[in-house]
Amino acid sequence: MSKRILVVEDQEDNRRIVRDLLTSAGYEMIEAVNGEEGVAMAQTDRPDLILMDIQLPGLDGYEATRRIKANPALRQIPIIAVTSYALSGDDAKAMAAGCDAYVTKPFSPRLLLAKIREYLP
Q1: Which of 31, 83, 84, 107 is the most exposed place for a label (fewest CB within 10 A)?
Q2: Exposure string (b/e) for 49-81, b if CB count within 10 Å is 16 or more?
Q3: Fold of 4-119
Q4: What is the pLDDT of residues 88-105, one digit of tens each?
């Protein structure tokens, strides 16, 4: 059975790039366009991994991550921040919110897949 990855990303172009990458690598992808939807889908769909944008409308990726990690049933799901926030300290802020890893945009598809495979061998 293929692993299911929840992608929380508000930009359709970015979702399409990730969708093509994940499906070509054999993963099943489900999509949320904002933080609230991401938290709800994490609860209902129980993905194997979450790719979380940080800059989202409404509930940002930091808070969405905190809410997911605060739920004991979801705490073990790895969350990789995929964000254009690349200033000094942004990675630490993502990790403090509960992200397990941090990838900056624009990302190398090969490097993103390698990071995903660290959590989903």
Answers
A1: 84
A2: bbbbbbebeebbbbbbbbbbbeeeebeebbbbb
A3: Rossmann fold (3.40.50)
A4: 788 899 999 999 999 999
